[in-house]
Design goal:
Elements: H1 6-31, H2 36-67, H3 74-87
């Protein structure tokens, strides 16, 4: 099982909170009937923020695996690879 270092998650949580606010902004833009360019631009920003949060989580998991006494097990490697590919 891959665990996450809570210290590594602080910036991830901040990024996710920012993305949450951006999603609210996208909803408002649509409700206000704003230009599709504005909506898509904000959606792209949300996607980037979520991708970066996901990759930061995978990176933290890899660091935790490598720092553990048993190192990166085959099962952990497989799990991390699947998680990484899920984001790709």
């Amino acid at each position: 099982m891959v665990t996450l270092n809570s210290d590594d998650m602080t910036p991830v949580l901040n990024r996710l909170r920012r993305a949450q606010g951006q999603i609210g902004g996208v909803i408002r833009l649509i409700e206000e009937g704003r230009d599709c360019r504005d909506v898509v631009t904000q959606l792209a920003a949300v996607n980037r923020a979520l991708d970066r949060a996901g990759f930061a989580i995978v990176s933290s998991g890899l660091r935790e695996c490598m720092a553990s006494p048993e190192g990166l097990t085959a099962e952990d490697r497989s799990t991390m690879e699947k998680l990484f590919l899920t984001l790709a």
